[in-house]
Design goal:
The complex is a heterodimer of chains A (about 550) and B (about 200). With about 550 residues, chain A is an all-alpha fold. Chain A is about 65% helix and about 0% strand. Chain A has a single domain, classed as Cytochrome c oxidase-like, subunit I domain (Cytochrome C Oxidase, Chain A). In chain A, helix 12 (about 365-385) runs parallel beside helix 15 (about 435-460). The longest helix of chain A is centred in the N-terminal third of the chain and has 35 residues, at about 75-110. Chain B has about 200 residues and is an all-alpha fold. Chain B has a domain at about 70-200: Cytochrome c oxidase, subunit III, four-helix bundle (Four Helix Bundle (Hemerythrin (Met), subunit A)), CATH 1.20.120.80. Chain B is elongated. The chains are: A mainly alpha (about 550), B mainly alpha (about 200).
Chain lengths: ~550, ~200
């Protein structure tokens, strides 16, 4: 079989012929089933929502910067924190991680596309529609009762606040339907990723030779089945309650508000791991390449990831210590929560051991990963503090909790994501991102992050509850809230540097070539950006680092594995 | 122009590289996700057992749907035979077994419909009546929805099969559908046990 023949045949079918310049591009992207284009659409759509969610956060911090502020009304503040949380989890976190997964997984396992390309496109468009539906509530949410516009029940929408009597109008329905649809999209994409990994690997890529990123996406996607499905089921119940008058969460008819909490957090806590596992995945790829060493303890890393996947299913009720579940349940969830720090600790030590003794190159992707290591450690430590039930009784629902989980979401996940952008941007666009702007982005963002979220722990310890729209002067919270607000400015300017870098590098960036980092996984063996068919000849691998074997035939990895 | 570097390391002639069929794996994933959804509804049913503030209770109104259950469980055997005959190239027999599967599934749906009619019309139990009504209709209704989806897909395959479009090479695809149908049956075993045996 000749290579040129295959290439010609594929090129012919994929050349868009319809319409004139602006329209043919739009048409091509609308109907595409290519995993790279869908991945990029996921990322672009998530970045738009990241900006929207960021603006919502900024508005809340302006409101809270000084006591007795009247920048926004209490009603608007409720909508802001609801929309901020929902947007960031469902329409930034999930799509951006699925976007990277879509783009990278087939390339890293040497496949030409996902297992189900059309399902892939369907999942993306359903998720995109869900995001638009959520924001359409600002226009269409008032309904017949003309009450409220955007959802204002909080991102975990505790019953009975969501009942028809307490949430008249349709704003809560927009929330429910948006989550439901986003769940369908997530399950579709997760199904696709698992099937792709199991059924589409190139010749001789055994499970034990898969890049760790692929392993982590396998665990993360499997977790989506058992984590997101319960939320979907709970949304069906909530819709039945609101529209057909059933009584699942209706306490007046004997229903239980606590049941909703359980159902929500059975989703909610594994969801944290669904979001953080891809962040681990990026670090797993970036740290070895910039330390010029193979990853330390590959089997331990795989075992720890799978372990995290399982344990994460038994920790949900640590979100509910303040509910009063009784001593036995509290004890179980305290221990389960503490146990999960063991595999997580294994990961941190393995990353450190990978860096240890390596020839470390501090380019932008690597410095983001170093920041990730430090910040994720701190986030884990406050997590262990909160896992102790009596400590949680004291600080549950305070700004300490808000600071803790933002440390995970921003300090760990978003930081690793930024690293991933700098690392794979050359592959995606064919151009390097600017190092100067990258360093500005890093320092501004990290300084802003620490100003905001380090100092946010303190008002929490001093008793400031979350979700209050304002507070009185003289409680000792003012100074801390000002510092927290100042940090937001730094983060916003840092993010602006990042956006400028994306645009500027796309137009003027240095040509990257197909392997700018001298890396070892299969995506770097094809051109940048990869052709539609990814690989003209499907690769065969003999070790975990196929490109190392190719570059160093005298000392291949396959001798050691 | 070659813009792609192929990694061709002299491949020694070893065992051929075969991976599982993607339809089977995809369906297995879907089944895991669907099971999680059913688990939540079953948990809600069990959690609310005996917590209704008003009647009627399950013991007063529910009867064992033996006939429907036998039909549905038998349809698992017929759909298996449909796949088995298709794999051997016995296309006529396959069409016959597909038709009996659809027929048995329809009978099950009719028994459910009659049961619901009885509950709503004679006993006055609706989804709004009490917690039993809420959890009963949503759990059994969710299962019935899956039966309907399965019947639509099976009828499509039956239609193709009647026009002679289903051939031996499609056996893997039909098997994927059969897998879904087995799942629907297995869920019914759980629903039957929880709702009609333990819950009464």
């Amino acid at each position: 079989m000749s290579t040129t023949h295959v290439v010609d045949k594929i090129d012919e079918t994929l050349t868009p012929q319809q319409g004139r310049p602006p329209f043919n591009v739009v048409y091509e992207w609308l109907r595409t089933v290519d995993h790279k284009k869908i991945g990029l659409m996921y990322i672009a759509y998530a970045l738009v929502f990241l900006i929207i969610g960021g603006v919502e956060a900024t508005l809340m911090r302006i409101q809270l910067a000084i006591p007795n502020n009247h920048f926004v009304s209490p009603q608007v503040f409720n909508q802001l924190f609801t929309m901020h949380g929902t947007t960031m989890v469902f329409f930034v976190g999930m799509p951006i991680l699925f976007g990277f997964g879509n783009y990278l997984v087939p390339l890293m396992i040497g496949a030409r596309d996902m297992a189900f390309p059309r399902l892939n496109a369907f999942s993306f468009w359903v998720s995109a529609f869900a995001g638009l539906l959520l924001y359409f509530s600002y226009v269409g949410g008032s309904g017949l009762y003309a009450a409220g516009s955007a959802p204002d029940v909080g991102w975990f929408a505790y019953a009975p606040l969501t009942a028809k009597v307490f949430s008249p109008g349709h704003s809560t329905d927009y929330w429910t339907l948006a989550i439901f649809l986003s769940g369908i999209g997530s399950i579709g994409t997760a199904l696709n990723i698992v099937t792709t990994i199991i059924c589409m690997r190139c010749k001789d890529m055994k499970l034990s030779r898969m890049p760790l990123l692929v392993w982590l996406y396998l665990v993360m996607s499997s977790l989506v089945f058992v984590a997101v499905s319960p939320l979907t089921a709970a949304q069906v119940m909530l819709t039945l309650d609101r529209y057909l008058g059933s009584h699942f969460f209706d306490t007046q008819a004997g229903g239980s508000a606590v049941l909703w909490m359980h159902f929500f957090w059975i989703f909610g806590h594994p969801e944290v791991y669904v979001l953080v596992l891809p962040a681990f995945a990026f670090v797993n790829e970036i740290v070895p390449v910039f330390s010029r060493k193979a990853i330390f303890g590959y089997p331990a890393m795989v075992a720890a990831s799978v372990g995290i996947g399982f344990i994460s299913l038994s920790v949900w009720a640590h979100h509910m210590f303040t509910v009063g579940m009784g001593a036995a349940a509290n004890t179980f969830f305290v221990f389960a929560t503490m146990v999960i720090s063991v595999p997580t600790g294994i990961k941190i030590f393995n990353w450190l051991a990978t860096i240890w003794g390596g020839h470390v190159i501090f380019r932008t992707p690597m410095i983001f990963c170093v920041a990730f290591l430090f910040q994720f450690l701190v986030a884990g430590l406050t997590g262990i503090m909160l896992s102790v039930a009596p400590f949680d009784w004291q600080l549950g629902n305070s700004y300490f909790v808000v600071a803790h989980f933002h440390y995970v979401l921003v300090g760990a996940i978003l930081t690793a994501l930024f690293g991933a952008f700098y690392y794979w941007y050359p592959k995606i666009t064919g151009r390097m991102m600017s190092e100067t702007l990258g360093k500005w982005h890093f320092w501004l963002f990290i300084i802003g992050f620490h100003l905001t979220f380090d100092f946010m722990h303190v008002p929490g310890l001093l008793g400031m509850p979350r979700r209050i729209y304002t507070y009185e002067a003289g409680r000792g919270w003012e100074g801390w809230n000002i510092i927290v607000g100042i940090g937001v400015v730094f983060q916003a300017v840092g993010t602006l540097c990042f956006v400028c870098n994306l645009v500027h590098s796309y137009l003027k960036g240095k040509e990257a070539g197909h392997d700018p980092w001298d890396a070892w996984t299969l995506e770097w063996s094809t051109s940048s950006p990869p052709p539609d068919y990814n690989f003209a000849v499907l690769p065969t691998v003999n070790s975990r680092r196929p490109l190392w074997d190719l570059k160093h035939p005298e000392d291949p990895d396959s001798d050691y594995e | 122009m070659r813009d792609t570097v192929a990694i061709s390391i002299a491949s020694t002639r070893e065992a051929p590289w075969t991976l599982p069929y993607r339809g089977t794996v995809g369906m297995a994933c879907l089944i895991v996700a669907e099971s999680a959804i059913f688990v939540i509804f079953v948990v809600a049913y069990i959690f609310y057992l005996g917590k209704s503030l008003t009647g009627p209770t399950p013991a007063q109104v529910l009867e064992l749907p033996i006939f429907g259950t036998v039909c549905l469980l038998s349809s698992s055997i017929t759909v298996h035979l449909a796949v088995a005959t298709l794999r051997k190239g016995m296309l006529r027999a396959c069409t016959g077994w597909l038709a009996s599967t659809v027929f048995l599934g329809l009978i099950f749906l009719i028994t459910t419909a009659r049961e619901w009619y009885h509950l709503i019309h004679d006993e006055g139990l609706t989804i709004q009546t009490n917690l039993f009504g809420t959890t009963y209709y949503s759990l059994v209704g969710l299962h019935a929805t899956h039966v309907v989806v399965g019947l639509i897909m099976l009828s499509l395959v039956l239609g193709f099969s009647l026009f002679g479009l289903v051939k031996e090479e499609h056996s893997e695809k039909v098997e994927t559908l059969a897998l879904y149908w087995h799942f629907v049956d297995a869920v019914w075993v759980v629903v039957f046990t929880v709702v009609y045996v333990l819950g009464r």
